[in-house]
Design a protein that fits this description.
Helix content: 40-55%
Largest sheet: 7 strands, mixed
Radius of gyration: 22 Å
CATH architecture of the largest domain: 3-Layer(aba) Sandwich
Number of strands: 14
Bound molecules: pyridoxal-5'-phosphate
Number of domains: 2
Shape: globular
Mean pLDDT: 91
């Protein structure tokens, strides 16, 4: 008899158990959004779990541009870019982004996830190698799994380990080094200059994912690559519209030749419908506003500095973050869930991240801050965090009292050979099939 594919679905109970215990933090329904505040179950919450860094998702000019695009072109493009799905707004946005990033050309994808997957799969071949930071985003890791190239993980942000990995590869092989510009869990930034040096020494191409750095870091928010003045040194820049630009979608920027190739070879672009008119119209306006109103980025950094300082003063550990992404160390997985539930009850919206997204026993509440947060919002958030930490004994958790002790349980200090098992994405299988959450709620 053939294996029952749905057995695992019948047996899956982690989310039900978590709901029964009263701290299931996912799929919370937002009934109304004002950006810095949202309404859930009829009650207003301060949103500190969003990537809407510049508050542009709700800007009336962006909303009006999205409506105007819908009136002109309809609700959707009902086809692939390659065939019937290209409208003038797609071309306009590609040109605007190429100009902004000072690149020859840009190609849009329907999500940032597809941009990474599509580019990695199309650009590499079976004898090539992708050298991937172990803390890169899941879309990159999925992209590496789909790509024909062999995967070589390297220790997070370590140019030295990268160099050692590169040194051992055949000189004639194609090599691509890929990293997040700002890492989505830790909030730290890529140590780009030594990475560039290592890549250049061994003839490797460089690919930087600017998802969390566009609109946040660098002159006018141009990203990490520009922050380091390295635009001529990085071959491929990827970005998303799902964060600072307040919408959805992604892109790859680079040479005209590469973009022309991707336009005809990236399956994630060819075999999916193009971005809806409302999205492209809105993103074009958001980009225009972002460039015209740099004070938004200044305010974002003011808020970021206040929160880094504020959390540290209370006693929280916030890791190595240098950006508006602020991971608050809680420790035990169960406490992180309880913490996030108490935040919600007190009027703050933020979600936990547990193993395998972070090290086991070092669960966090992941917070991220926006230019649209007011002084009052931020003060309230700090007060509420302090109150809950006291109530739940956060600073008594082994993550605080015995730092480092539990790190070797499931950390990513894996053997030299690496491979997929050395990456978060693959250990993420545990989360996808439920054992991550199960471990939490049943402990
Ligand atoms: C670093 C990074 N890259 C890519 C993506 C995927 O972007 P999108 O949401 O546009 O699919 C994300 C999303 O969270 C991300 O954090």
């Amino acid at each position: 008899m053939s294996r029952d594919l749905f057995q695992k679905c019948r047996e899956y109970s982690d989310s039900t158990v978590a709901r029964a215990q009263g701290f299931y933090p996912y799929f919370r329904c937002i009934e109304q959004s004002y950006g810095n505040h949202v309404v859930c179950e009829g009650k207003e919450k301060i949103m500190i779990g969003s990537n809407n860094y510049l508050g542009l998702a709700q800007d009336p000019r962006v909303v009006e541009a999205a409506c105007e695009a819908t009136r002109k072109f309809g609700a959707g493009c009902t086809g692939s870019r390659l065939l019937n799905g290209t409208i003038s707004l797609h071309n306009d946005l590609e040109e605007a982004l190429a100009d902004f990033l000072q690149r020859e050309a840009v190609i849009l994808f329907s999500t940032g996830f597809f941009a990474n997957q599509g580019a990695l799969a199309a650009l590499t071949e079976g004898d090539d190698f992708i050298l991937c930071d172990k803390e890169n985003h899941a879309s990159i890791i999925e992209g590496c799994q789909v790509a024909p190239a062999k995967l070589i993980p390297y220790r997070h942000n370590s140019a030295e380990v990268l160099r050692n990995r590169l040194k051992r590869l055949p000189a004639e092989a194609g090599k691509l080094v890929i990293m997040d510009g700002v890492f989505s869990m830790s909030g730290d930034i890529a140590d780009l200059p030594p990475m560039i040096k290592a890549a250049r020494e061994f003839g490797a191409a460089l690919y930087v994912d600017e998802a969390h750095s566009l609109g946040v870091v660098g002159p006018e928010g141009r990203g990490i690559v520009h922050h380091f003045g390295a635009n001529d040194e990085v071959d491929i820049v990827m970005g998303t519209f799902s964060k600072s630009l307040g919408s959805m979608g992604g892109f790859i920027a680079g040479s005209a030749e590469m973009v022309e190739f991707l336009k005809h070879k990236a399956r994630c672009m060819i075999f999916t419908a193009s971005l809806a008119p409302a999205v492209v119209g809105g993103v074009l306006k958001a980009l225009e506003i972002m460039r015209a109103e740099p004070e938004r980025i200044d305010q974002l950094w003011k808020n970021t500095r206040k929160m880094h300082e504020g959390f540290k003063q209370i006693g929280f550990k916030i890791g190595t973050t240098q950006t508006p992404i602020v991971p608050i160390l809680i420790g035990s997985e169960a406490k992180a869930f309880a913490f996030s539930q108490r935040l919600y009850d007190e009027g703050v919206f933020a979600t936990p991240a547990i193993y395998p997204a972070v090290r086991y026993g070092e669960a966090i509440v992941r917070t991220s801050f926006m230019s649209s947060h007011t002084e009052d919002d931020l003060d309230k958030v700090l007060q509420i965090f302090a109150k809950i930490a006291k109530e739940l004994g956060t600073f008594d958790d082994p993550a605080y009292t015995e730092p480092g002790r539990r790190k070797n349980v499931f950390d990513f200090n894996l053997p030299e050979s690496g491979g997929f098992e050395a990456l978060r994405g693959d250990t993420g299988v545990a989360a996808r099939n439920g054992s991550g959450l199960h471990a939490t709620v049943s402990r």
